[in-house]
Amino acid sequence: MIKIKKIFTDKSVFKRYAKEISSICKKIKAPLVILNSKEDLYIKSQRLDLGKNNVYLTLQRGKILSKCPCSKGSISCGYFVLDTMVGCPFDCSYCYLQIYQNIRATSFYLNLEEKIKKVAQFLSKRKKFMRIGTGEFCDSLTLEDILPQLDILYFYFKKLPFVILELKTKSDNIKSLLNLKPLKNIVVSWSLNPQKIVKEEEKYTASLNKRLKSAYLLQQKGWYVGFHFDPIIYSPDYKDIYLEVIKRLRKFYPKKIAWISLGTLRFPPRTPQVIKERFPDTKILNGEFILSNDNKYRYFRHIRREIYKFMLDNLKMYFKDVPIYLCMETALVWKEVFGFVPDSKYFSNLFSSHFSI
Prior knowledge:
Blueprint: E1 6-10, H1 11-28, E2 32-35, E3 54-58, E4 65-67, E5 79-82, E6 85-86, E7 91-92, H2 97-100, E8 106-109, H3 112-126, E9 130-133, H4 150-157, E10 163-169, H5 175-178, E11 186-191, H6 195-201, E12 202-203, H7 208-221, E13 224-232, H8 238-248, E14 257-264, E15 266-267, H9 271-278, E16 289-291, E17 297-299, H10 301-316, E18 324-326, H11 331-338, H12 346-354
Parallel strand pairs: 1-2, 1-3, 3-8, 5-9, 9-10, 10-11, 11-13, 13-14, 14-18
Antiparallel strand pairs: 4-5, 6-8, 7-12, 15-17, 16-17
Helix pairs in contact: 3-4, 8-10, 10-11
């Protein structure tokens, strides 16, 4: 369980939500700090870790549903992002949020239900298959026990059987899910890495053992689960340590695995400087990288191709009917690994048929 040290909010928000905010503070047992302005929370250095145990109670005033920010020149899988929070109490060395996030707290939206209701109304009229996820700018479950969102999501997406909602996490915080009846259109997924990498590069996250145990418990209860090997981090022994993880997935029932994605380490140009300052002992920058056309540093193409082929060959031994795809990769790499380049309808057909929608 994450321990929240401080709760922040603005004067204007407190006036409107005083009862709700007071209830949250009492439940979490953390002091409330009322700000004159959000600017008081702005980060003035790279010490993002100072905000990992803080929560900022605020309002979502912008668009809550958007297309996944797929890299320029990469094959898009048609994924959409549901913006339910911004920030994460976990502290992974490779996380892109550390160069984008500008406040020392995780932003939690008090008006989430109002926003979700509008999204649900829009989707019900649209009536098209979609995959939507809440884990792009936050961890979907890590604060669920103290700042729950699942009841709201469950209520509205239960009425949208043609929309797949993904809850992506690196936690083992599944208690609320175990108390709910599984829905065919809600997928709980885990980002996976070998325990060696979890320990060295994914600070505060649940161990690999706990992630897999949580996924197994949910699948046994009837939930669809998913797995993301992303980012795969290259090292001389990567085949040994990733093969060990793949073998541990053999106990999962393939028909209740929604998908498995593969993606290698990538980052914008100024990320290495931030990583070196915040994680001086990290080994993730030891590889050879090249600046790609999407203005991100990546492993050389032949290394990515080798990694993907190795992962795909071994995953297909156990999960030949499970959708496996590359995240934010070029058409050329897709062609080299899968032997084809997906067209605009490939992913919607792949996933809708897998879920019989």
